Amino acid sequence: MPELIPVITKAQIDAAVSRIARDISNDYQGRNLVMVGVLKGAFIFMADLARNLSIPVQIDFLRAASYGAHAYSSETIRLTKSLELDVKDKDVLIVEDIVDTGLTLKFLKSHIKSLGAMSVKVCTLVDKRERRKCELEADYVCHAIDKGFLVGYGLDYAEEYRGLPEIYHLKW
Ligand code: IMP
Ligand code: MG
User: Fold this and answer.
1) What pTM was computed for the model?
2) Ligand nearest, relative to CA of residue 149
């Protein structure tokens, strides 16, 4: 059985979400912000973030999948649910659970730019730096870690653990 080792507590998550929400509210004051959550992992983070903003925001979601179990280039990523809002001339902030290789977000950023968005930035709950395979810098980061497989607060392993209120390292 895998072991769950606590990594980020509820108090740390709450503090980071408030801090990031304050930064986003300042940076996007007076703009047309659309937050785009990446399903499914970002759903809890997105809900907490949206409730902490002090500016108006429109919300949409999309979903991406990689063709193989191991995606080695952004060409092997496809959309399985696309945006429903028109993001042309809007300021888009992609909200992701975790950046690992960066290939998913590289693909999603260029996709949203191709829809005519005025700007596209990235906000991630966790920035996992060790396996990055492309130039991808998240603009807003709640927590940075080097490595390890994390679950909880939306993050899953084989669809399990998403409902845990804190974030754990899943260790075999
Ligand atoms: P990337 O394209 O390699 O950056 O992959 C990002 C996606 O892989 C994330 O959106 C997650 O769905 C998944 N992922 C990567 N690392 C983890 C992890 O530690 N826990 C849960 N999911 C992860
Ligand atoms: Mg994800």
Assistant:
1) 0.96
2) 1
Instruction: Say if CB 38 and CB 104 are below 8 A apart.
Output: yes
Q: Which of 4, 97, 103, 128 to mutate to test the pocket of ligand 1 (most atoms within 8 A of CB)?
A: 97
- State how far the Cα of 56 lies from the Cα of 43, in Å rounded to an integer: 19
In one-letter notation, the amino acid at residue 114 is S
**What is the number of alpha carbons within 13 Å of residue 31 lying toward its C-beta?**
19
pLDDT tens for 108-150 read: 999 999 999 999 999 999 999 999 999 999 999 999 999 999 9
Question: With 0-12 CB in 10 A as exposed, 13-18 as middle and 19+ as buried, what is 69?
Answer: exposed
Ligand nearest to the CA of 168: 1
Report the candidate in 8, 37, 1 with the shortest Cα–Cα distance to residue 157. 1
Q: How many whole angstroms separate alpha carbon 57 and alpha carbon 89?
A: 15
